[in-house]
Amino acid sequence: MTFCRLGYFKYIYVLLVVGCILLALVMYSSTGKPVIADDVEELNFSAESGFYEDEFDLYIDAVGGTVFYTLDGSTPTCQSNKYTGPIHISDASNNENVYSTRTDISSGFQKELIEEYSLFYEDPQYVIPDYSVDKCTVVRAVIYYGNDRYSKVKSASYFVGFDDKNGYDDINTVSIVTDPDNLFGYENGIYVTGKTFDEYFNTHLKDDSVFYQWWAWEGNYSLRGREQERTASIQFFDEKGRLKLSQMTGIRIHGGASRAFSQKSMNLYSREEYNGKDYFQNYLFDNDYLPHTVTINVCGEDAYSKMRDCLFNRLVRNLNVSTMNFEPYNLFLDGEYWGFGWITDKYDKEFVHNRYGIDTDNVIMIKNNVLSEGEDGDYELYSDMLDFCSNADMTDNNNFYIASQLIDMESYLDYYASMIYVARCGDWPQGNVALWRSRKIGNEKYCDGKWRWMVFDLYTTSMEEELADEDTINSAMNDSPMFANLMQNDMFRTAFLDKLLLLSDSTFNVDTVNREIKEIREILDSAMENNISRYYGEGKYSLYFDEVESIENFFEKRGTYIKDLVGEYR
To answer: DSSP character for 499?
Structure first.
């Protein structure tokens, strides 16, 4: 009798709990916010994301609710298209351009404002494509259960008929799918001038402040930090069009001044909150670790060639500096072709851990004189090193010995010699510098507390034919007190000049450089025709070849000049 009563009360208790849960769901749904049901079966698409020769019908299977879908990248709701039968998937390239027609993605389109307010009239010559850009079909679907309860969104990208299109052979593809408001919304869109630009411009007009170059004007894309990260679905395809990775991710705009450019670099973040994993679930580079963050690098000011950074990283990969992996990708945003770029590593504590074996909580990293990885107080370790190496009397070998305990001298020599060789100047070395060290000293090879340098940003003012006879030793000394001071030490000066000569005969040997350029051009020649047409207009392909020729001519001339320059500094 007692057992029966206990069983009865347990039954009543379970009913009450279930009732409370259902009531809570109803109350939450009454706010109008979708309630994600995590315990449902996923939607089943009859075809996975990929490249297809022929058009086909896409079937969607789901249990327990009604399927709604979108074809424009927007998040589906019960107000979207109701699935009642197969969706016909064909080559979408002839569809009307939508996102690629926007002029609010860069202040560079504000030609009248540039002419009136920019310190220097610099028209970037951006155009809106007057032809149908290549497109894929983006399908996003969701199961609706009623009472504002939805399944998780399933997204897919379908490329039909691309076998006959130029610029896709042997190149990877990445499709980023996100609600258009995340990219192009006036208030929340991270890819546009938006509300931030209007408020910035109105403020400056009222106080009559000096206006800088157009790319320095603020816009939504200027905003930084985690709060500017948006959720997206990504699909990576290899060079044969096979699906390599599909998952949810976070996206942010990446870069400095290049944020204002028409084509922007983006960081992609794998987070547990998006997909249950803190790392991308495939090897995106030719290495043995899964990255947490990668960058879609569209090369900033090197927009006409997109070669310099990749070329330099490949040439110096065996020196004592950190270098990035570069994988070529054609990018699509919400189904529309968005140009060519490189998927690269992102310099962070995960990069240092994977490359050098240092625990992530033991990494200090500086980028552009700002602490990007580390703890409170770590910046002082950098500023103390910089102060000593810039101001101590380096003619005293005791001081030079102390400096060599603060920094990895081989890394510093390799970094400065290689950057000076390729005539990096203008915004370097006073900016665009990255370096790291371990906070604690241990027994591991790189856990010695010494600063080491990282190849960082070769997009501007380097490897140009007109710079082949530029004395960048002098410009580097003018712009870096630390380098100028170290050059006062005879041992350092001799080692540095010897390093320049060695690089001329090995790393930057003309035959070596031309071989690397040839390999990169096998990727770029066709891909850049599409990219140039997309952003600068059809018939402007010569912009690419002119830049490549300038790079080739630079290295043809630079070696002879470097040997003469070394003689002047002996």
So the answer is: H
- How would you label 165-194 residue by residue, b for 16+ Cβ within 10 Å and e otherwise? eebbeebbbbbbbbbbebbbbeebbbbbbb
Bridge-based pairing state of the strands 154-160 and 137-146: antiparallel
Sole residue written with tokens 């591991």: 444
In three-state secondary structure terms, 336 is: strand
Query: Containing H/E element for 382?
Result: helix 378-391
Is there a domain that residue 486 lies in? yes
Is residue 8 within 8 Å of residue 118, measured between CB atoms? no
> Does the pLDDT at position 441 exceed 60?
yes
28, pLDDT greater than 60: no
Q: In degrees, to the nearest 5, what angle opens at C-alpha 97 toward C-alphas 95 and 101?
A: 175
- Going 210 to 215 to 218 to 219, the CA torsion angle's sign is positive
Q: What is the C-alpha R_g of the chain?
A: 27
- pLDDT confidence of residue 232: 97
Task: Tell me which H or E stretch contains 342.
Answer: strand 336-345
Nearest 5°: phi and psi at 54?
A: -115, 155
- Beta carbons of 308 and 458 less than 8 angstroms apart: yes
Sign of CA dihedral 125, 128, 132, 133: positive
Burial 516-530, CB ≥16 within 10 A → b, else e? bbeebbebbebbbbb
H or E stretch at 26: helix 2-29
Q: Which two tokens stand for residue 337?
A: 């072709």
> DSSP per residue over 408-437, as a string?
-HHHHHHHHHHHHHTT--SS-SSSS-EEEE
Question: In this predicted structure, what is the pLDDT of residue 358?
Answer: 97
CA-wise closest residue to 47 among 82, 86, 81: 86
pLDDT band at 207; cut points 50, 70, 90: low
Task: Let me know if residue 117 belongs to a domain.
Answer: no
Burial 115-137 (b: 16+ CB within 10 A, else e): eebbeeeeebebbebeeebbbbb
Tell me the C-alpha to C-alpha distance, in Å, between residue 66 and each of 45, 76, 142: 15, 12, 8
For residues 58 and 222, give the distance between their C-alpha atoms in angstroms, rounded to a whole number.
40
Confidence of residue 286 (pLDDT cuts 50, 70, 90): confident
Give the range of the structural domain holding residue 438, as residue numbers without chain letter.
359-569
Residue 120 lies in a domain: no
Q: How many domains does the chain have?
A: 1
305-350 residue pLDDT tens:
999 999 999 999 999 999 999 999 999 999 999 999 999 999 999 9
Closest CA to 184 of 154, 150, 221, 138: 221
Of 477, 492, 488, 493, nearest to 566 (Cα)?
493
67 within some domain? no
